[in-house]
Amino acid sequence: MTAIKLDKFGGMLPSWDARLLPDGQADFSLNTYLFSGSLIGWRQPKLLHQLRDSATKFIYRIPNRDTNNTAITAQDGFWVELPDADSTVMRTPVVNDSFQRYYFASPSDVPKYNTYDRILNGDPSFILGIPASGCTPGVTVTGGGDTSQLGYQTLTPTGGGQDYRPGNQIMLVPIVPQGSMLLTTVHFTPQSTNASLNFQAVCYSDLNGKPYQLIGIGNPVTGVTQNIAASSNFNNGVSVISNAVYWIGIAFDSAFYMMIADGSTANGSAFSNTYANGPSTQVDPALVVTGPTWNMWVDLLGQSVFEARSYVYTWVSAYGEEGPPSPPAIVDGWSNATWTVDLFQPPPEQMANRNLATMRIYRSITSQQGQGTYFFVAEVPITQAQYVDTSEDNIISLSSQLESLFWYAPPSDLQAIIPLPNGMAVGWRENEVWFAEVYRPHAWPSNYTLTTEFPIVGIGVCGQAIIVATQGTPYLIIGVNPAAMSMVKINLPEPCLHRASIVSTDTTVLYVSQNGLIQIASSGQGQNVTEGWISRERWQTLTPQKHVRAIKHATSYFAFGSVAGDDNSVAQQGFTIELSTEDQTSFTIWPQPGGHRLGYSSLSSPNGYDIVNVQVDPWTGVGLLVQNGGAWYYDFTDQAPIIVPYKWRSKVYQQLSRKNFQAMKCFFTVPPNTPAQVDRVIDEPQPELESNQYGIIRVYVDGMLWTTRELRTSGELLRIHSGIKGEQWQFEIEGRVNVANLQVATSVKELGLV
Asked: Looking at residue 197, which CATH number applies to its domain?
């Protein structure tokens, strides 16, 4: 029996001779969708969105944030349209980003970003990254010092009189330090001489404008001389803080006269205290301050130092994106001085196109180990020209440190922004791989850059692995921190021909080379996955050799040539290659490694329009085509799709002797929305399938077209012309119906036994 039954339809294995193909494999396959084993064409994509700009070559859908409807057919979303087909869009990796920023990069424009609200409002994008000011801040230091005096050491115009003080008293005057300091010595000017007078310095805290608790005692001293200042030292110093009231004075045992510094005020406080018992630890709250303002003062030792201090400032956007610092200004001065910092605004165009809003001022603090670090001082409006810094180091050291030392804007020719795990992003230019700071897509430190031997064509990502496809060998980059990424050169000399041919899956990255489809695993293992069943010469003949754009669609590598500039020479050519390794065990097991039942199939452009771009909607994984001024999508939820006409040609069945096949039957079902069959009589040959035909079967004998039959009814007996015997028989089906099987026999009787 020599009957033939085709019931396991597969794709092409182009490197195989047509006579040696396994049963069911195709010698030619165009627009076939063979996942079920039956013969059916790809469904026609549907128009999803009419482009606003006919020059658009890249689209990106943003769902409505209020309804959060991410369905591909949602009518309340917004479409971003870009003129460069090689554009990339990354949604913000920042957790709970209230601005919902989107980042854009393409070979024809500088990297940019925009917010959800601005995109919907039609506002232009901002340039990505915050520049560093090239202007060094101006710093002026005034005042300050390590020692100072507080109190009433200078006589006023009303001063110079004397006040009698009986023995065993404590007399005090108030002071207010302007910094954290140490009280060292109390001075006063007596107006009488008393060689036996015993006295010692005291210091009290304040409560509601009156002396309160004793906090310091000076060393005892004996004897005073008229008009000569007398002094008592605090042995260990008394620590005081800024802007707090303290009472300084003396405790004494004998009567004497005291000079008055200001006769017009009554700031002095005096109360009885037995000198021999030591100063009272607490003052009676009922004490009334009625004493004159005596000529009494205190020396203070500041905790400031004469230091070299460095100031820088950064520009910050309205969204909190900070840039690198300005050149530093290094100035010497007392730490308790007044430091006036002059700031410089960015040029008006940068304020506008980068949305700069504020400046952050930082200054250096040196640790005990000699390590200098910049700490945050203040954030001021971008228009503010000057800031006065009086804060002490112990306050500033509690602030945050400068993080943005190397947070430079991305290079203007960055080719892409591709999201990575852990809040990272990657891009490239020439032979350089660039990384963004974690969760800060505006910052691209140049010291994170890695370089390749050959110019980079594109980048793919699988898991935490980055595959860099170049004009020479590919590279593998792994790591979880952009500051510590590791790169390995893969010893596989397979250049990537087309940037848009790079397809990232969960475990591998694929791209087109001149020899076939190259697969690089996340482990770094690389191979030509088609070399076992598509030879190099057949690969270059079958696939478009220009502007290939691809996606992972269903379980296949789905690719088309596209329009590039005015060149549309391959804009209606495409192909699919099955990627699923599980398919090796379905229907047929191939004798060679890497074989797949679905194999390879050619594609023609659906709708007959030039392909501009092939993309995947990131929210749904649905395949998209940009063509004829619209965004088209493949709707696999539609149970009644319109089927693209297909053409499938079987292997060459070589007989042991010359045979005459005389009859055949084709069993098929008619998909919904298929144009109705028109009854007619058509003489052979029928060169092309017409719009109102289900299908055509062509029979070839020894390479010659011998019989053409039209499919009208499933299972209908179709006669093959007699009068010829041949050794090599081949069958071609062109149609739009779902073919379950084709049966061919040498007679009608034999056909009934198939």
From this structure: 2.60.120
